[in-house]
Predict the structure of Putative hydrolase.
Amino acid sequence: MPELALCGYQHQDAVRRLSLPQSGETLRRLAALARGRRQTLAFGYAEQCGDERYNAMMAIDAQGNVCANYRKIHLWSGYEQALFRPGDRLAGFQLHGFRFGMAICYDLDFPELVRAQALAGMDCLLCISATTRGYDVVPRHVVPARAYENGCYIAFANRGDGDGPFACIGQSRIVGPDGGIVASAPAAGAFTLSATLDRQSLARWRRQHPWPADSRHAHYLNGLMPAD
């Protein structure tokens, strides 16, 4: 489910009113739902932790246990920065032999966040979003590029609601490690997408295109451009 799925994105009062602690009743009900349906759920919500509020993403496994909770590191200027505190660490989990990474919307505009997870062995990035009009480049080009350059799947779940400056464009999709679209949704409304993550195809692609493995990032991540 997309960014801030449990409270909505565009109304600040609703975000504040519907912020939830990790141990709240709503999240316990979602855990029961995951357990009853024997499915893993990943969704966006406004997390309340003491006096702090985070734009967060939680994953609950088929046994109803929280397997990861990620707090958005890169907050969109202005609106989000007035509502939330930024997170300070990555999160992920393993399921059925695959390693899943996590990102929220604006995080995807920072290639190094995705690459760091790829270098740690990520197979599929779960990215929830509230991408709005004027940013069609994100689902159409940025999502495939991040998958291609890191040799991983990306499941991109975007909101398809809202109005005015908060009108989201939908276009949720699942993209393969070659950057190709495996499944996609139209521009608006609520949809369910499904795809099979193919372990053998993923391994074969990575053998042929070992970019993360060949990365020599230690030689430039801490370097500076020469001074004039």
In short: The mean pLDDT is 93. The chain has one domain: 12-213. The first helix runs from residue 12 to 17. The chain has seven helices and nine strands.
